[in-house]
Amino acid sequence: MYACRRYERPCYWFRSDRVFVMNGWWYFSAREGIELGPYATHLEADLEARTLSGQLASMCPGLQSRVVICQFIYDACNSGRPMSPQFGASKAG
Which residue, of 8, 12, 60, 69, has the greatest Cβ tally within 10 A? Predict the structure, then answer.
């Protein structure tokens, strides 16, 4: 599947599973280079990745998308699901 956000120029993305496990917890990667989590299950991380992806679908890349991601993290913390995002961290199984 090759999809670009509304304001991105057409491009081809290397698609791999954006959900991964690290130290026994599940995370997902955003295009912006941020890894979000932890989540207890693969399903939970996948659902949250889809939620955030839907929120970012009409955003211009860059600052706007980072603001949306920060709000996503803030909302998670306020609903009792604290996150520990990693900015440009390497994935380790």
Answer: 69
Q: Which two tokens stand for residue 57?
A: 């679908």
Structural domain boundaries, residue 65: 19-87
Structural domain contains residue 69: yes
Angle ∠(64,87,83) on CA atoms, nearest 5: 90
Whether residue 13 is contained in a domain is answered as no
List the structure tokens of 78.
């306020």
Q: What is the pTM of this model?
A: 0.69
Q: Tell me: the pLDDT tens digits for 35-93?
A: 999 999 999 999 999 999 888 887 766 678 888 888 999 999 999 988 888 876 545 44
Q: Assess if residue 49 is contained within a domain.
A: yes
Give the separation between CA 61 and CA 65, rounded to whole angstroms: 6
Radius of gyration of the chain (CA): 13
- CA 70 vs CA 3, 14, 64, 65, 73: distances in Å: 23, 25, 10, 9, 5
How many domains in the chain? 1
